[in-house]
Amino acid sequence: MTDTSNTTPTTTAREAAAQKAKEAYFTASQRQLIWQRFKKNKSALVGAWVLIILILSGLFSPFLTPYDPTIAGRDKEYQNGAPEIPRFWDENGFSARPFIYTTTRERSIKTNFRWVTTVKTGLEDRRYMQFFVKGSPYKLFGMTFDTHLFGVDKGQIHLFGTDSTGKDIFSRTFAAINTSMAVGTIGVFIAFVMALIIGGVSGYYGGWLDSILQMITDTIRTVPAIPLFMALAAFVPDTWSAETRFFFISIILGFIGWPTLARRVRTHLLTERNQEYVLAAQLCGASASHVIRKHLLPSFTSYIIVDLVISFPYMVLSETALSFIGLGLKDPVNSLGVMLQNVTSADVLLNYQWYFIPVIFFITLVLAFVFVGDGLRDAADPYGETS
Q: Tell me: the pLDDT tens digits for 267-317?
């Protein structure tokens, strides 16, 4: 006879909860299992939130930033101006509204004609920040708006300072994130489609077709990127608009970025094409395209998603590197690579350190993608830890 005198309701509840969790695990879909593993990776979760914030900031940059990031929104009275940090108090007392000071600037022969900034700290010299102010019109989702998140009651405010032409670096930085992400998205999409088609056909059919496609893949992988882009830069006419150059760079990045994912798709299909579920579909009269789309690729979905996420930082890095060396996007387009061109001179390093602020955002964006990609890769691994 079993003694149940030591069994408590708490113990019974815990056992029931454990049994329920075990059943939920064995009945969970692949997507749910990946999400459960991903949530346990704290660095990947933080990276995902940072990535979401940066992407949304770039997408809504016209509203979040106070001025037009192009030459049309420049402040000709504050060229190479230092960042203006809002404050709530000074020697004149506390203010419920954040404010910045009024400044005057002049060039002097004593400073080799560099700008000399004089800050006026009087109570009447305060310029108070305002929110949801009217400003330069912009388009967002096909509609025209003129409301910006913040501004000041007099003059202009430059949280990250200005460049040599007076353009607001804060506005340029968030617009650059949006541009670089757009280039990466187009490039990844083109590479994704080509990789699925070429890798799928090569892995499913095999034989001589696989050999030819792999020769093409190896050829693309061995083409050196920098000489290729130098040749393309010489080919691109100077009369091309910024938008045309933007799409050209995106397409080229996509056309040279597909071999890695295509190889992985091919390897997976080579091992899966002889499985029983594939043979059953073929015996039912399913076409090759149907088998690839409906049976083989879905079994590889988690790895494809991981590859897509990991491909984004490489596309952004490629665009940044090309624009940095003058082979990619150029002014008036705002991209992270274009902005990094401004930090190459010793004069900037010694006197205008705020030019490096976009570098921080660039590093943060790439690291966020890397952490999220690593987290998804570990979460999608069926042999990883499941507890």
A: 888 888 888 888 888 888 888 888 888 888 777 777 777 778 878 888 877
pLDDT band at 45 (very low <50, low <70, confident <90, very high): very high
For the segment 279-289, what is each residue's pLDDT rounded down to a tens digit?
888 888 888 88
Q: pLDDT per residue over 215-272, tens digit each?
A: 999 888 888 877 877 777 777 777 777 667 777 877 888 888 888 888 888 888 888 8
Nearest C-alpha neighbor of 81 from the set 115, 125, 127:
115
Neighbours of 73 (CB within 10 A): 18
> How many CA atoms within 13 Å lie on the side-chain side of 152?
19
Separation between Cα atoms, residue 202 and residue 39, nearest integer Å: 35
**Distance of CA 65 to CAs 76, 143, 175, 260, 319, Å?**
18, 17, 9, 38, 23
Question: Using CA atoms, how far apart are residues 355 and 359, in angstroms rounded to an integer?
Answer: 8
In terms of Cα–Cα distance, which of 129, 278, 261 is closest to 198?
261
> CA-CA distance, 250 to 240, in Å (whole number)?
15
> CA-to-CA distance for 264 and 310, rounded, in angstroms?
14
Q: To the nearest 10°, report the CA torsion of 201, 207, 211, 213.
A: -10
Rounded distance, CA 307 to CA 335, Å?
A: 24
Point out which residues pair with 106 in neighbouring strands: 116
The CATH number of the domain holding residue 308 is: 1.10.3720.10
Would you say residue 367 lies in a domain?
yes
Q: How many domains does the chain have?
A: 1
Task: Decide if 265 is inside a domain.
Answer: yes
